[in-house]
């Protein structure tokens, strides 16, 4: 997405420079107007003329000359000759002139023709062999009886090959309503095929190729295309005219779950299979940063090349330092890697040419625009300055890549092949090559494989802060993702036939598209009531709402209806199911939890018994739900519980007073004025783990300053749940920026978990603001760790340099631990958190080169859940209104154990599923898994009906052995995203430290 022109027109003025590589447009620009006259650059020898600005006065001749060295080589009499640009100062050159050169031990002369228009500069070919060391050039120019002289130093310059990747940046919205945006991208495919056919006989470097960028475009194109168009598209792909990269959209990858991140590439895998090809590449435009989890899953997706072309300067921190520094990006296990290249920003094409042609966003039905002058507003002189800078930075390679887009959601540039063809006819170097991501990476790796460095660490993303502008929908989407995983697991547990793989796939796409980086219109902040801005948010919001409804329906369908015979793992039930419920544990680990039975399913009474008739601790809650304690629910299982009339059963009691709670394991005290938790103790651990300021503080920051932060006080505390199983305090306080705030603190007897339920009824406020819930733990010397897709990292220690350190995005948990004690903090609803006191204060607007971006994260045991903000100047929502609920879970533990913490995070995100009883009394997966520190990230049936798929993650720093056992003979094989049986495995196999493995398990 670009920034609207009226906000940053001054920034574009920076891009007219000639002497150095210009500052590029921001994300990027929707111009208010364009001019067809006065092109900035031309690739012939005559540059901008005085006639263009003063046609009536051609007597204003130049007064001096300047020599500008370049890295370019001209084609000169069949040879490559170094090029120097002669700049005319004080006027233009109109009359014929002779240029005498002394260089590299040779003398030469060149005649400059007369020009009625006037030349402002001239490209001069230098005599002699290539320069091998710095050499001085002396030029004497004679014109109209006057002599002008100049000198410069010519340094050695390599022969360059520059790959140009044509595309149109895919924002799903932003520039216009999504239907119009999609129509432009779909038309680009048709136009690309025509242009590629027209240029099929051009020199190979100038033959047109089109990069669709995001497979969302292709998916929609194929869903509506005629059979004739589909066939033409397939042929174009096979010819290399249309190029497909693996990712479905330009996504905030750290905000997606592991399962979503894998599904990001499922459409590409299907297309590749259908077309008899392989897709090993991904392209990500605009978004600065990417999750390390992408690398962990590379063997599953087959993606081994990653091109990033981020925004030029909008809220990108120091990520621009990674431009043109390719590296093999190795995963945490050290077993997988992806060749990563962050190119210059994707807005170069727009800056040089797109801003000089009609404004496509004011045209109702924009089409590719032909200027008739393909070389105007092209890469001269920008490219020479850019390459010169690379050489000055000791860039070790002789090839690089630039993307070429006319802006966000813009029509194709139909003149690019002719511009490239003309360029290569004139310049021996740099040679231009119209490319795909695949071609560029293959050529680069072939030439330089042994010289490419290897890096490890998380490229912590910057743009995830914007998702807190839609906190309610973000929570809905995260909950739907967890629910969908549970639905797939239940289908596998029950061995239920008819697994609706396509319905699951479509739901995953909705979840992904909510995490796509485009959240709203370019004027979402400046003009929030604009009908197009409102329509774009509704379209975006619908992804989360549709995923919510789809996931609920799929979960219902997974628990309803008959399952296949499950053999010894199923036990029939012949009793009355009217007073019974089934409880599913969708995790690959035993799960002790307080189970909440809806009031409608628990009318028989308040007493709960297990399958052996044993009474379980239970309690009717104030909400009407019946709570009971289920101990050690078996992994991947369904268990039946019956409900009976009679008193609720007690075991170990939890107690509550006016400002304290105790369940025999945890003791919690609340400040009577603020409602914050000022005492947190756990049996067996010394000391209070809450800082004096208190945990779960409400914090409201108006504007941009931490000094303006206000909190809540005047707490009204009442007992909500009185025990004996569940106790809770409900704290109501006035809340700045909101209509009301309620915070419930809940404990349950027999449960090693503290539950916090915060509900904020937000006021719509257009002024800049941030909302936090702050957790200052008393854990001296703590290291902060947090979960990312497919694993976890240590803040700072496991991050690449030049990445975001102002805030972080957690998947399931954050852990604050020293060598003796720690606290695991988890939120299924709110992904953003900060380490320390308000490192996001002042992050308003574009933040170009702002000193507020942190370069180092100081470890400290203060975690702030950043639940809401409206700090952006575009794209994201200006304000939020109404109630949103945020759940938090706390668990105190000893020394950090990755396996324990990851299992706790899974439990917080996937609680037991309760349904009306039906079918067998118990069901279990047809095999058991014993993997020590290995946890099951995801489980679901194979699409072909043959067994189930599992993704396994080794959370430990050492190799772990996984063993599968069953009463049935098992067929076990390593698998991938296409569910291919890649390699047969035995019943016991190893997973490397921090590694992941996808397997298929079926009955023989």
Automatic annotation (TrEMBL):
Keyword terms, alphabetized: Hydrolase, Signal
GO terms of molecular function: alpha-mannosidase activity; carbohydrate binding
Pfam families: Glyco_hydro_38C, Glyco_hydro_38N
Glycosyl hydrolase family 38 C-terminal domain segment(s): 661-824
Signal sequence annotation: 1-25
Entry-linked CDD domains: GH38N_AMII_like_1 (cd10791)
Occurrences of domain Glycoside hydrolase family 38 N-terminal (ranges): 161-450
InterPro entries reported for this sequence: Gal_mutarotase_sf_dom, Glyco_hydro/deAcase_b/a-brl, Glyco_hydro_38_C, Glyco_hydro_38_N, Glyco_hydro_38_N_sf
Domain of life: Bacteria
Bias (Polar residues) ranges: 51-61
GO biological process, any: mannose metabolic process
Region (Disordered): 33-61
Name of the protein in its database record: Glycosyl hydrolases family 38 C-terminal domain-containing protein
Species whose genome carries this gene: Chitinophaga arvensicola
């Amino acid at each position: 997405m670009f920034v609207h022109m009226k906000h940053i027109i001054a920034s574009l003025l920076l891009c007219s420079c000639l002497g150095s590589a210009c500052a590029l447009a921001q994300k990027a620009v929707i111009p208010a107007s364009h001019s067809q006259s006065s092109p900035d650059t031309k690739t012939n020898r005559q540059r901008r003329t005085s006639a263009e600005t003063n046609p009536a006065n051609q007597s204003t001749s130049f007064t001096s000359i300047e020599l500008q060295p370049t890295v370019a080589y001209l084609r000169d009499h069949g040879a490559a000759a170094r090029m120097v640009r002669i700049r005319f100062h004080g006027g233009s050159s109109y009359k014929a002139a002779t240029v005498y050169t002394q260089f590299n031990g040779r003398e030469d002369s060149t005649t400059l023709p007369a020009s009625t228009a006037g030349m402002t500069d001239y490209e001069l070919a230098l005599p002699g062999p290539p320069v091998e060391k710095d050499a001085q050039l002396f030029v004497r120019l004679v014109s109209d009886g006057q002599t002008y002289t100049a000198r410069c130093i010519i340094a050695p310059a390599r022969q360059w090959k520059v790959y140009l990747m044509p595309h149109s940046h895919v924002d799903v919205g932003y520039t216009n309503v999504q239907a119009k945006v999609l129509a432009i991208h779909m038309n680009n495919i048709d136009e690309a095929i025509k242009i590629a056919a027209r240029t099929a006989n051009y020199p190979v470097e100038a033959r047109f190729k089109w990069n669709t960028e995001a497979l969302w475009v292709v998916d929609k194109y194929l869903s509506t295309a005629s059979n004739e168009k589909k066939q033409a598209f397939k042929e174009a792909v096979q010819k290399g005219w249309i190029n497909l990269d693996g990712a479905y959209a330009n996504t905030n990858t750290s905000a997606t779950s592991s399962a979503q991140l894998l599904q990001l590439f499922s459409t590409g895998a299907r297309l590749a299979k259908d077309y008899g090809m392989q897709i090993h590449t991904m392209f990500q435009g605009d978004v600065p940063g990417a999750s390390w989890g992408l690398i962990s899953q590379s063997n599953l997706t087959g993606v081994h090349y990653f091109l990033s072309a981020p925004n030029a300067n909008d809220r990108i921190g120091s990520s621009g330092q990674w431009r043109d520094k390719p590296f093999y990006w190795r995963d945490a296990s050290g077993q997988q890697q992806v060749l990563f290249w962050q190119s210059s920003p994707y807005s170069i094409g727009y800056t040089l040419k797109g801003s000089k042609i009609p404004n496509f966003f004011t045209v109702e039905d924009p089409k590719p625009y032909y200027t008739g002058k393909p070389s105007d507003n092209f890469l001269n002189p920008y490219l020479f300055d850019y390459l010169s800078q690379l050489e000055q930075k000791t860039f070790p390679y002789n090839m690089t890549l630039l993307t070429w887009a006319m802006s966000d959601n813009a029509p194709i540039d139909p003149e690019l092949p002719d511009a490239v063809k003309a360029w290569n006819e004139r310049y021996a170097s740099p040679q231009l090559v119209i490319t795909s991501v695949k071609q560029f990476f293959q050529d680069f790796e072939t030439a330089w494989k042994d010289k490419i460095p290897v890096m490890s660490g998380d490229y912590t993303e910057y743009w995830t802060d914007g998702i807190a502008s839609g906190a309610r929908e973000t929570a809905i989407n995260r909950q739907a993702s967890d629910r969908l995983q549970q639905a797939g697991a239940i289908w596998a547990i029950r061995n239920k036939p008819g697994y609706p793989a396509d319905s699951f796939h479509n739901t995953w796409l909705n979840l992904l598209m909510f995490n796509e980086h485009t959240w709203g219109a370019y004027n979402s902040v400046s003009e929030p009531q604009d009908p197009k801005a409102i329509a774009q948010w509704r379209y975006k919001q619908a992804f989360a709402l549709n995923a919510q409804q789809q996931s609920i329906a799929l979960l219902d369908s997974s628990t309803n209806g008959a399952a296949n015979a499950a053999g010894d793992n199923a036990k029939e039930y012949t009793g009355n199911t009217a007073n019974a419920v089934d409880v599913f544990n969708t995790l690959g680990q035993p799960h002790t939890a307080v189970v909440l039975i809806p009031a409608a399913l628990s009318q028989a009474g308040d007493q709960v018994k297990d399958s052996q008739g044993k009474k379980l601790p239970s309690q009717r809650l104030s909400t009407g739900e019946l709570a009971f304690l289920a101990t050690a629910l078996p992994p991947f299982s369904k268990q039946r519980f019956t409900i009976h009339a009679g008193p609720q059963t007690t075991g170990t009691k939890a107690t509550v007073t006016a400002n304290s709670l105790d369940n025999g394991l945890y003791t919690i005290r609340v400040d009577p004025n603020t409602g914050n938790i000022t005492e947190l103790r756990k049996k067996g651990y010394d000391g209070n783990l809450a800082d004096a300021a208190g945990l779960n503080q409400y914090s409201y920051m108006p504007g941009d300053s931490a000094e303006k932060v206000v909190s809540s006080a005047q707490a009204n505390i009442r007992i909500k749940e009185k025990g004996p199983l569940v106790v809770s305090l409900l704290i109501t306080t006035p809340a700045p920026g909101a209509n009301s705030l309620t915070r419930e603190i809940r404990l349950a007897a027999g449960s090693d978990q503290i539950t916090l339920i915060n509900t904020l009824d937000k006021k719509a406020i257009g002024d800049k603001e941030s909302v936090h819930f702050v957790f200052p733990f008393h854990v001296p010397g703590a290291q902060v760790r947090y979960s990312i897709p497919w694993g976890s990292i240590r803040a700072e220690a496991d991050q690449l340099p030049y990445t975001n350190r102002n805030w972080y995005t957690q998947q399931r948990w954050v852990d604050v631990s020293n060598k003796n004690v720690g606290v695991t903090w988890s939120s299924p609803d709110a992904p953003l958190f900060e380490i320390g006191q308000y490192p996001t204060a002042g992050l308003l607007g574009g933040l170009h080169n702002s000193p507020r971006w942190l370069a180092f994260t100081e470890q400290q045991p203060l975690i702030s859940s950043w639940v809401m903000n409206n700090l952006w100047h575009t794209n994201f929502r200006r304000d939020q209104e109404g109630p949103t609920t945020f759940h938090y879970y706390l668990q105190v533990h000893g020394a950090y154990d990755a396996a324990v913490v990851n299992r706790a995070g899974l439990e917080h995100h996937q609680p037991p599923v309760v349904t009306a009883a039906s079918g067998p009394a118990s069901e279990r997966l047809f095999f058991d898994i014993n993997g020590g520190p290995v946890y099951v990230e995801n489980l679901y049936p194979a699409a072909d009906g043959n067994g189930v798929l599992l993704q396994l993650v080794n959370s430990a720093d050492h190799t772990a052995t996984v063993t599968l056992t069953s009463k049935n003979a098992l067929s076990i094989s390593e698998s991938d995203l296409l569910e291919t049986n890649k390699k047969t495995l035995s019943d016991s196999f190893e997973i490397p430290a921090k590694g992941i493995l996808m397997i298929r398990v079926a009955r023989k």
